[in-house]
Amino acid sequence: MIFGNPCDFAIYIDVVEEWSFPDSPEGMFAYIIKGEFLPLNITERSCTLGCYIVDLYRTIEWHKKTSVENAEYFHLPPDIAYPKLDAMAHFPFENNYSDSCDEDNTYDITVGEMLSDTKEIFLVSNLNLEKIIYYSEQEKKPKEVVIKKGKVDKVMSDVITWYEKNISAVRIL
Predict the structure, then answer these.
(1) 65 lies in a domain?
(2) pTM score, two decimals?
């Protein structure tokens, strides 16, 4: 199933019965941003879909409590914004390990085990728009897409609702 518009932002999720266990649906999961699947190799790996659904739910809840509003990052070109956001998300581990949690994942919308196969995907907003800033695996450079504010959370919510109704007996929202 595809939720959203693959031309700007969508989520692809599919249960693969042959990979699944009775109480644990396995399958494929990816974001589709400007027609590009992230991660690219979704057919080569199995995803525990329930974990992705929980992460989508957590992302929506995080956005209710923490604003991704940032006019400065929103107006930067992706080749400048992406490294800044990436550095924020990895501060303690890549520069010098620390027990303190100085990393800031406010803008990170990467879920599940996507990081095994792709780089972080960030969301920033300004006024009534939001911008997804991501690293294009196809073009090997940071890119962006600007969409109506609230679309990412709406698409995530639609996936959760579909999963609850069709796959899982556990209600998440």
Answers:
(1) yes
(2) 0.87
